[in-house]
Amino acid sequence: MKFIEFKPKLFDCLKDYNAQKFSQDALAGLITGIVALPLAIAFGIASGVSPEKGIITAIVAGFIISLLGGSKVQIGGPTGAFIVIIYGIVTNPQYGLEGLMIATLMAGVLLILMGVCKLGTVIKFIPYPIIIGFTAGIAVTIFTTQMGDVFGLKEEAVDNAGNAILVPLKTPGDFIGKWVCYFQHLDHFNLWNFAIAILSILTIIFSPKWFKKVPGLNKIPGSLYGIILGTVVVLCLKNFGGIEGIDTIGDRFTIQGKLPTPAVPEISFDLIRTLIPVAFTIALLGAIESLLSAAVADGVIGDQHRSNTELIAQGVANVVSPLFGGIPATGAIARTMTNINNGGRTPVAGIIHAIVLLLILLVLMPLANYIPMACLAGVLVIVSYNMSGWRTFRAMMHNPKSDVTVLMVTFLLTIIFDLTVAIEFGLILACLLLLRRVASVGQISLQEGEIDANNDSDVTVSHEEALQIPEGVQVYEIDGPFFFGIANKFEELSANMMDVPLVRIIRMRKVPFVDATGLHNLEVFVHKSHEQGIHVVLSGVRPNVLEVIRKSSLYGEVGEKNIFNHINGAMARAREVVEHPHTHHRSHSK
Question: pTM score > 0.85 for this model?
Answer without folding.
Answer: no
